[in-house]
Amino acid sequence: MMKKIEDIFKDFRTSLIRGELINILRRIDRHRLKNIVASYLARKSGFMLSDSPRPVTIFIETVKGCNFNCVMCRAGELAKSYMSFETFKKLIDLFQDTLYVFPYVVGEPMLNKDIYKMIKYSSQVKKQVVLIISNFSVISPEELVKSEPVEVSASVDSVNPEKFSKIRINGNLNQVLGNVKKLIEAKKKLRSYLPVVSFNTTLMRENSEEVEDIVKVGISMGVNKFYFQTVFKADFLNVCGEIPELDSIERVRELKNKYKGKAKIFLISYYEYERGDYFSGYCQWAFSSLCIDVDGFAFPCYILFSQRERNFGNIFTDYDKVMRRRAEFIKNFRKKRPDICEGCPLYFRDV
After folding, report:
1. Whether the predicted pLDDT of 14 surpasses 50
2. How far apart are CA 151 and CA 134, in angstroms?
3. Are 87 and 107 in contact (CB under 8 A)?
4. What is the CA radius of gyration of the chain?
């Protein structure tokens, strides 16, 4: 029974280790359970449990832009803008039946002065599951622990300082690892199991030989969860980073077995030649998520944020229109690739 529950949660991009499952289950009320079941059925069979399906997951762009300029993202080239706490609160109130909240998209969430207040409102007041990926350049460890996100993932694409700074331009590896260490120490000081601290690595040909070194460094610091995510390529994205070769994918698989019992290692592949641990069949984000940018424009998923014209409308000025267009999008998704998803390799993956 427990294994089946974990499989359902994996369908929504959340991987569980001891302690997380109980914490998440406590946050699921009947409305959120209905959303999970409705999304799962629509994706797997095309059956619509509701005429107006609600998102299981929302991504909220609390910051547009970044203090790094990573080769596979280029958010550092964007003019910075910040979402206010009042705007964030309004969104959370609109979607309080949503289970998972990611308060970031392509920017660095910790640059927002209200980020801890935002996390606290979503996690503690609305009892949502907050998950964050950060470059760990500007964090306040104790504030982060006290705000109670379920998981915080540090972006670590190399443990070689020189290579790290070439991939994550303007980044400093020692600073990042130092902040990871401080966060783990803050958890111990405050006697808090959460947040789970993980590493998130964009797997490219440029760093594929470092996968075990990254795991070793993480374990030595007290990190026991790792995501290796292949660099994402699509017709509409202009990013660098070479697609990893098959042998590097196999290397990650070997590490999953080698470090079993010491760490949980997950492979997220966006390509047809490898299923990975997620993303088989129809795109899960299409059915489970809604992504809202700093100006309120709503998208099916975070991948389309760079394509401003591919949105459902503005959530603040035309909420009903956005939800109606999302419902139509989900209803017709399995029949034909939507124009809004043209050029994306995740529409359907037969692996």
Report:
1. no
2. 11
3. no
4. 19
Distances (CA, A) of 117 to 106, 121, 125, 148, 175: 20, 6, 11, 10, 24
| Maximum separation of any 2 CA atoms in the chain, in Å | 53
Among the residue ranges 8-12, 104-108, 231-235, 296-300, the one predicted with the least confidence is: 8-12
Amino acid type, 125: V
Task: Give the span between the Cα atoms of 130 and 302, in whole angstroms.
Answer: 16
Q: Domains of the chain, with CATH numbers?
A: 2-349 (3.20.20.70)
Q: Is the pLDDT of residue 209 over 70?
A: yes
pLDDT at 75: 85
Q: What is the rounded end-to-end Cα distance, in angstroms, of the chain?
A: 25
Confidence band, pLDDT 50/70/90 cuts, at residue 2: low
Is residue 280 predicted with pLDDT exceeding 60? yes
